[in-house]
Specification:
Blueprint lengths: L2 H33 L6 E4 L19 E6 L7 E4 L4 E2 L4 H12 L10 E3 L2 H12 L12 E3 H11 L2 H12 L2 H15 L17 E2 L1 H13 L1 H7 L3 E4 L3 E4 L10 E9 L3 E12 L2 E12 L2 H15 L3 E7 L4 E6 L5 E6 L3 E6 L4 E7 L10 E9 L2 E9 L8 H6 L16 E5 L5
Antiparallel strand pairs: 1-14, 2-3, 2-12, 4-7, 5-6, 8-9, 10-11, 11-12, 13-16, 14-15, 15-19, 17-18, 17-20, 18-19
Helix pairs in contact: 2-5, 3-5, 4-5, 4-8, 5-6
């Protein structure tokens, strides 16, 4: 073979080898590039800040002890005066009634069993009349429903009927005292002591935090809440009884119980409703140790006048509001938005903060759940789901072939999983 022929053969073999090498490389490169996993898209979190509010100041009476709370809110919202357990007078009857209803439940619209009074019940009339307690007439053989008896106790505050009520429910005052002690212990009312059902004894004591919780229990019981909101009731044989709480209907006050005793002063456990924005909140309050009924009522009217200003409806999220934004390496973008609107009613300077958690995304469809915002409002939490407002699709073969380095391990800008950030609320 001539030298020229040998050179041509070598060139053909080299060209063939290069072609084979290129084909082999392409056979590896193309599948690897087109099928390689892509790191998740990065997300940036939107920060929000809630303006700082000053603590609300209420016009509490400068006597005894007082405080307020609200249904759906934990603990005492604001208080003033003594932190000790103080005599509570006839507010005791609310506790006695709740203990009786725990043992002898009564449904809304039901009168309950018939209770027949005997000579021992008649004797109670004289017993309490001699010590200046409120009484209502009773005769031996009189039959009255459980509902009617509760109305006499809570509306008229008749002491003789209160003792008859617990004697019927428990058989004796001693058994009532034992049942009440158990009820208070199980409820965590550590500052409350009830030695008899009427409140005539100054040994019946409680604290502001305990009484506010008891007020919520009273309102939660539909029978009790209905009775204490009644300005008057018509009870067979006894007649028309006017509620001792003359503030009913004033400043939206709709309960709960008065109390008057030399050692306790004038007292009131009360409730009232407020409309704040789109929310309705039921506030419960108590004042112990007032100088007299007139000054107590004036002080409570001033107190309830200022409570509404202490509540604020804070919008946590609007539907479609952006809490995080995604941006892919191949030019697509989408937002993590609130799936629903949410707001919360807060008291005074209660702090509001939120934690945004979103998933890392490679591909996702519009409307897909991708995270949530957890708002912390005082001791409570509110969760708002987040969804994607646009599709994030695969970048396609051309981008994959032209960006091989983005497919290498370590090319992901957020390889560690879900993204989370803490923010201190939102602008309102």
């Amino acid at each position: 073979m001539s030298t020229h022929s040998r050179s041509a053969l070598i060139r053909r073999r080299v060209a063939a080898a290069l072609i084979l090498a290129t084909v082999a490389a392409g056979g590896v490169y193309l599948p690897v590039t087109l099928m390689a996993p892509i790191g998740p898209a990065s997300a940036s979190i939107t920060q929000f800040v809630t303006p700082v509010r000053d603590a609300s100041e209420l016009m509490f009476p400068g006597v005894g002890a007082s405080g307020i709370s609200a249904v759906g809110f934990d603990g005492v919202l604001a208080s003033s005066g003594s932190t000790n357990a103080l005599p509570i007078a006839s507010i005791s009857k609310v506790i006695s009634t709740l203990v009786v209803l725990d043992a002898k439940p009564l449904a809304v619209g039901e009168d309950g069993p018939s209770i027949v009074f005997d000579q021992a019940d008649v004797a109670l009339y004289g017993k309490y009349q001699r010590v200046g307690g409120t009484v209502e007439p009773v005769t031996a053989g009189l039959a009255m429903s459980q509902r009617d008896l509760l109305e006499v106790v809570l509306v008229s505050s008749a002491n003789n009927y209160a003792e008859s009520l617990v004697d019927w429910a428990f058989g004796s005052q001693a058994e009532f005292a034992t049942a009440t002690a158990v009820w208070l212990t199980e409820g965590g009312f550590d500052s409350t002591v009830i030695v008899e059902p009427t409140g005539m004894s100054p040994s019946n004591v409680s604290s502001v935090p305990d009484l506010l919780r008891i007020a919520k229990l009273a309102l939660h019981n539909p029978v009790v809440s209905d009775i204490v909101a009644s300005k008057s009731v018509e009870v067979p044989y006894v007649g028309t009884l006017t509620n001792t709480n003359t503030l009913l209907g004033v400043e939206s006050i709709d309960g709960i119980k008065t109390g008057t005793l030399d050692e306790a002063g004038s007292c009131l456990l009360f409730s009232t409703d407020y409309t704040i924005g789109s929310s309705v909140v039921t506030v419960v309050g108590v004042v112990l140790g007032g100088e007299n009924r007139e000054s107590l009522e004036a002080a409570i009217r001033s107190l309830v006048d200022g409570i509404a200003e202490g509540f604020h409806e804070v919008p946590l999220a609007e539907k479609g509001e952006v809490f995080a934004s995604y941006s892919t390496k191949w030019g697509q973008s989408a937002n993590a938005v609130a799936e629903e609107a949410s707001s919360v009613l807060v008291w005074s300077d209660t702090p509001v903060s939120g934690d945004v958690t979103v998933q890392p995304l490679v591909k996702a469809a519009r409307g897909e759940a991708i995270g949530e915002v957890t708002f912390t409002v005082g001791a409570a939490q509110v969760r708002v789901p987040l969804v994607l407002d646009a599709d994030i699709a695969d970048p396609g073969p051309w981008w994959r072939l032209s960006h091989p380095l983005e497919l290498l391990p370590g090319g992901d800008s957020n390889p560690d999983g879900a993204l989370s950030t803490l923010f201190t609320g939102r602008r309102i």
